[in-house]
Specification:
CATH superfamily of chain A: Response regulator
Number of strands of chain B: 17
Strand order of the largest sheet of chain B: 2-1-5-4-3
Strand content of chain A: 15-25%
Strand content of chain B: 25-35%
Strand order of the largest sheet of chain A: 2-1-3-4-5
CATH topology of the largest domain in chain B: Heat Shock Protein 90
Number of helices of chain A: 5
Largest sheet of chain B: 5 strands, antiparallel
Number of domains of chain A: 1
Number of strands of chain A: 5
Helix content of chain A: 40-55%
Shape of chain A: globular
CATH superfamily of the largest domain in chain B: Histidine kinase-like ATPase, C-terminal domain
Structural class of chain B: alpha+beta
Number of helices of chain B: 14
Order of helices and strands of chain A: EHEHEHEHEH
Oligomer: heterodimer
CATH topology of chain A: Rossmann fold
Helix content of chain B: 40-55%
Shape of chain B: rod-shaped
Distance between the termini of chain B: 109 Å
CATH architecture of chain A: 3-Layer(aba) Sandwich
Largest interface: A-B, 24 and 25 residues
Number of domains of chain B: 4
C-alpha cells in the first residue's frame, strides 16, 4: 500500500531525512515546518498519515494533532519527540487521538518498523 | 484664749485622717478621735474606758496571739517611757482588715512621770497591698521568664556573667541552671563567636538597644547548632543599663526545611536543563544515525567507507545511550498507583541483595518492621527501585562488613518512616550536599543517577527522603511516605 505522508518538524535536516527515508520505502511524502502549515495542507489535500513533532515553533504539536483529528478524523497521526519517554505527553496525545508515539532516540530501522506497525493497527481499527 | 486653743487642738485631732487615741498606763482608752471610732466601727461609749487591746482586736479572731505584740509594745512604753513604731492589723465594722502603722508616744508629766500614751495610727493597707502585688508581679514575671520553653532566654550583666537563665535555655544548651549561672557568656558561644562576633553584638546593643542575627551556639556536648538570636539592653528599675537580654531560637528544623526546599528547587532546575539539552542533542543524533543507516543499506559501498560508517554509527550510539541516561533522570512516568503494604514491598526486594553480598564481608542485617502498618498509596515497582538502590549503596559502603538496619515506623498514623542505615564508610559533608544531584557520584563506576531517581520517585509519592551521615560511622537514609487513608488505621 502506498501511503501519502505529511511530515511536520521545525528542523529541516529532520524533515529531509524523513522524506528520503519514506521515499525509499516507496511512499509519497510532503513536509512542512509548522503546525499552522500542516493544518492548511491537510485541509487542501488528502493524507493517509501525519508524522508530527511535539515541540514546534508556534502552534504546538499536540494542538495541531487535535485540530487535524477534528478536521479529518480518518487521518492517522503519529507523534515524534526528542524528549524520550514522557507519559504525560503520551496520555495527552492518546486523548487527542494519535495512533502512536515515536522517540527520536530510536534507531532508524526500529523507527520505520514501529511506524508501519502503528499505521497497520490504526487502519485495521477504522475498518 | 487658752480654752480656744484647747478646742482648736481637739477639733484638729478629731478631724485628722489618722487614727488617734490616748490611754493610761494600763491601756485603758481615755479619749479617741472620729477616724478611730469610724475605723473600729464602735460607738464612743463602747470605746472610752475600755482596754485598747480588746478594742483593737475585738473582731480579729484569726490573728489571736498578735495582741501579745501590741501588749508587749505597750508594756515597753510604760517601762522605758520611750516612743516606738509598729504595725498591727485592725478589723473594721465591715470585716475588712487594715494594716495600721502605729506611732506610740508616752506623755510625761513635768516630773517625768508617765501620764498616758498617745497612739497615732495611719492606715497603710493600700501601699501594703501595692507592695505585695508588686512582689507578686516580680515573682510571676520571673516565673514566666524562667518557664518559656520555645526560646532560650537568659540575661547577662555588664561584665558578661549570666544572671538569669530560663528553662528554655536549659533545654537548648543542655547546661543546668545551677551549673551555668554566673559563668561567663562565652561558655555558650563558639570560639569564633566570642572572638569576632560577641563584642560586636554587645557594642551594637549598647549603641542601638538591640541586635538580631543568625548564629551558631554550642551545647554542653560541644555540638554546634544554628539559632536566631536577639539581644536587647537590660534596663533596671532606675533606668540604667544593667546588662543584656539574650533571646535565642533553635532553627535547626527550619534550616533543614530550607535546605530541602533549596535542594528540590535545584533538582527541578537541573531536570529542566537536562531535558532541554537531551532534546537538542536528540535531533542531530537522530539525523546523523538515520543518514548513516540509510547509507549502510547501499550494498555497493566500498569496504573502507562501510567500516567507517559503522564506526560513526557505533559512536552515535554511545551519544544516544548517554542522552537516554539523561532522559531517564527526567523520565516522567505516570506511576501505577495502588494501595500497598510497605513492609512487604521491602521484604520482596531483600532476596535480590544476595547477589551483592561479598562472601568475605560479614554484614549483619537487622530488620524491624512495624506491626499493623496502614497501607501506603504508591507504585510498588518504583518504590522497590528506591529500596534496592539504597540497600545496594549500603552494602557497597560496608566493604569491610558491618550492620545494615532496615526499620519501618508508624509515625502517629500519618505516615510511615522507613530508615535504611549502614555502619559503613560514611559520606563526607561536601558530597552529602550534592548527594541527590543527578550525575553526582562518589563511586567510580556509578552513573550518578541512582539517588536522584530515588529522590524524584519519593517526591512523586508526596514523600520526603533525607540522609544523615558521618564519615567512618555510617549513613542513614530516612524516607517518609504518607498513609493512603488519613489517620491510618483502616488501611489494612
Amino acid at each position: 500500500m502506498v501511503y501519502k505522508i505529511l511530515v511536520v518538524d521545525d528542523e529541516a535536516p529532520v524533515r529531509d531525512l524523513f522524506e528520503d527515508l519514506f521515499k525509499k520505502e516507496g511512499y509519497s511524502v510532503k513536509s512542512v515546518a509548522t503546525g499552522e502549515e500542516s493544518l492548511e495542507l491537510v485541509a487542501k489535500e488528502d493524507f493517509d498519515v501525519v508524522l508530527m513533532d511535539i515541540k514546534l515553533t508556534g502552534m504546538s504539536g499536540l494542538e495541531a494533532l487535535k485540530r487535524i483529528k477534528d478536521l479529518k478524523p480518518g487521518i492517522v497521526v503519529i507523534m515524534i519527540t526528542g524528549f524520550g519517554y514522557d507519559e504525560e505527553l503520551i496520555s495527552k496525545s492518546k486523548e487527542y487521538g494519535c495512533a502512536g508515539y515515536i522517540g527520536k532516540n530510536m534507531p532508524i530501522s526500529q523507527m520505520v518498523s514501529s511506524f508501519k506497525l502503528f499505521i497497520k493497527a490504526a487502519k485495521e481499527k477504522t475498518k | 484664749m487658752g480654752l480656744n486653743l484647747e478646742k482648736a487642738i481637739y477639733n484638729i485631732v478629731d478631724r485628722a485622717d489618722s487614727l488617734v487615741f490616748y490611754c493610761d498606763h494600763t491601756g485603758k482608752i481615755l479619749m479617741c478621735n472620729k477616724k478611730f471610732k469610724e475605723t473600729i466601727g464602735m460607738p464612743s461609749d463602747s470605746i472610752i474606758g475600755c482596754d485598747c487591746i480588746k478594742v483593737i482586736y475585738h473582731r480579729l479572731q484569726s490573728v489571736s496571739g498578735k495582741e501579745h505584740l501590741f501588749k508587749a509594745m505597750l508594756d515597753d512604753a510604760v517601762k522605758y517611757k520611750r516612743p516606738s513604731n509598729f504595725e498591727s492589723l485592725l478589723s473594721d465594722g465591715s470585716g475588712s482588715e487594715h494594716t495600721i502603722c502605729w506611732g506610740m508616744s508616752p506623755i510625761l508629766t513635768n516630773n517625768n512621770e508617765l501620764e498616758g500614751i498617745l497612739f497615732l495610727g495611719n492606715d497603710v493597707s493600700l501601699s501594703k497591698q501595692r507592695e505585695v502585688s508588686l512582689k507578686n508581679i516580680d515573682e510571676t514575671l520571673k516565673n514566666i521568664f524562667l518557664s518559656i520553653k520555645e526560646y532560650a532566654l537568659y540575661a547577662v550583666n555588664l561584665q558578661g556573667n549570666i544572671t538569669y537563665y530560663g528553662m528554655g535555655a536549659e533545654d537548648m544548651f543542655g547546661w543546668p541552671r545551677k551549673e551555668i549561672i554566673f559563668k561567663h557568656i562565652s561558655t555558650l558561644h563558639s570560639y569564633d563567636d566570642v572572638a569576632y562576633k560577641l563584642t560586636f553584638i554587645l557594642e551594637q546593643v549598647r549603641n542601638f538597644g538591640r541586635y538580631e542575627l543568625e548564629s551558631y551556639f554550642i551545647n554542653k556536648e560541644g555540638q554546634s547548632f544554628p539559632v536566631n538570636l536577639t539581644v536587647t539592653k537590660f534596663i533596671d528599675a532606675s533606668g540604667n543599663m544593667a546588662g543584656y537580654i539574650f533571646m535565642a531560637k533553635d532553627i535547626t528544623e527550619k534550616r533543614k526545611l530550607e535546605y530541602q526546599i533549596f535542594q528540590s528547587e535545584k533538582l527541578a532546575a537541573v531536570g529542566q536543563l537536562v531535558a532541554g539539552i537531551a532534546h537538542e542533542i536528540n535531533n542531530p543524533v537522530f539525523v546523523i544515525s538515520g543518514r548513516t543507516d540509510m547509507l549502510l543499506e547501499n550494498k555497493s559501498l566500498h569496504k573502507k567507507v562501510k567500516s567507517d560508517l559503522k564506526i560513526i554509527n557505533a559512536q552515535i550510539d554511545q551519544i544516544r545511550k548517554l542522552v537516554d541516561r539523561f532522559l531517564a533522570f527526567t523520565r516522567k512516568t505516570l506511576p501505577n498507583i495502588k494501595e500497598l503494604d510497605i513492609n512487604k514491598a521491602i521484604k520482596d526486594v531483600l532476596p535480590l541483595l544476595e547477589y551483592h553480598k561479598q562472601p568475605c564481608n560479614e554484614i549483619k542485617v537487622s530488620k524491624v518492621f512495624a506491626k499493623g502498618l496502614p497501607k501506603v498509596k504508591g507504585d510498588s515497582h518504583q518504590l522497590q527501585e528506591v529500596f534496592v538502590n539504597l540497600l545496594i549503596n549500603a552494602y557497597q559502603a560496608m566493604a569491610g562488613g558491618g550492620i545494615l538496619t532496615i526499620k519501618t515506623i508508624n509515625k502517629s498514623n500519618e505516615h510511615v518512616e522507613i530508615t535504611i542505615g549502614d555502619t559503613g564508610c560514611g559520606i563526607p559533608p561536601d558530597a552529602l550536599r550534592n548527594l541527590f544531584m543527578p550525575f553526582f557520584s562518589t563511586k567510580k563506576e556509578g552513573t550518578g543517577l541512582g539517588l536522584s531517581i530515588c529522590y524524584n520517585i519519593i517526591k512523586n509519592h508526596n514523600g520526603t527522603i533525607t540522609v544523615e551521615s558521618q564519615v567512618g560511622k555510617g549513613t542513614t537514609f530516612t524516607i517518609k511516605l504518607p498513609f493512603a487513608k488519613k489517620g491510618g488505621k483502616n488501611g489494612l
